[in-house]
Design a protein that fits this description.
By secondary structure, the chain is an alpha/beta fold. The protein has one domain: Rossmann fold, CATH 3.40.50. Helix content is 29%, strand content 30%. A hairpin with a 2-residue loop joins strand 11 and strand 12. Helix 3 packs parallel to helix 5. The longest helix has 16 residues. The structure holds adenosine-5'-triphosphate. The site of adenosine-5'-triphosphate (ATP) has 11 residues, from strand 2 and helix 1.
Length: 223
């Protein structure tokens, strides 16, 4: 599904990634681990087209996308949940979800078109805590609730591969459990996931754990 080959990235003259290679198969959960500054965010951003200057290959569903703009990658089925969530703070839960659904995307899962109403039902089934909060503004939610909303909003774009940057970082333990369970449920439904994390919450459930050390891939471990 996703193949990264020999990807290097530079912020100006400073190189942040050094010929990184990895793959994520259909329905796989791959965890990307590494210390602060190892290059996890840079790698995810490079895959979705928001990263710095790149050299190398990013192949998604057989198509070379390294030159594609981010909106095109999103249209092809790449979804990204950034570390800082990027919610519309003044908008309600429902409005945040509908903004994503109104993006000019063809909502296709396999051959089946999914309506916005069905998508809302699916995200509320995954995160039941969001349903009674539909009229609450994002700025009035806890960090964990905002994270659920951020994931739910990305799911409204019908991704086939979901990339997430530290989804459980700094979140109350009880909500961490809900988020982890929701991500595992997505995997069981066939979603492919590439998740950067430092706290090893999902690593035990991963098909593969990839360690980034100073911008380079280290050991490929199978738990
Ligand atoms: P963290 O968990 O702290 O976010 P990370 O593993 O995601 O760390 P990156 O944020 O990708 O690591 O950083 C990789 C390297 O690139 C670091 O040396 C960092 O200082 C550098 N870097 C990241 N963003 C920028 C930027 N916008 N401009 C210049 N250098 C950057």
């Amino acid at each position: 599904m996703l193949e990264v080959r020999g990807l290097s990235a530079w912020y100006g003259a400073a190189q942040a990634l050094f010929a990184v290679s990895l793959h994520v198969g259909q329905g796989e959960l791959v965890v990307l681990e590494g210390l602060n500054g190892a290059g996890k965010s840079t790698l995810l951003q490079s895959i979705i087209g928001l990263g710095p200057k790149l050299q190398g290959e990013v192949i998604f569903q057989g198509r070379q996308i390294v030159q594609c703009p981010a909106h095109e990658r999103s249209r092809l089925g790449l979804g990204f949940v950034p570390e800082d969530r990027r919610l519309f703070a003044e908008l309600t839960v429902l409005e945040n979800l509908l903004v994503a659904a109104r993006a000019p995307l063809v909502h296709v899962r396999g051959e089946q078109r999914v309506s916005t109403k069905q998508q809302l039902e699916q995200v509320f089934a995954l995160f039941p805590a969001l349903q009674p909060m539909q009229k609450r503004r994002a700025l009035e939610m806890s960090g964990g609730e905002q994270q659920m909303l951020s994931i739910a909003r990305t799911l409204m774009t019908s991704p086939t591969l979901l990339l997430m940057d530290e989804p459980c970082e700094g979140i109350a333990p009880v909500l961490v459990e809900s988020i982890r369970d929701a991500l595992l449920q997505l995997k069981s439904q066939g979603m492919s996931l590439l998740i950067a994390e430092q706290n090893a919450l999902l690593a035990a459930h991963a098909d593969r754990v990839i360690t980034l050390v100073a911008g380079q891939t280290g050991a490929h471990l199978t738990p």
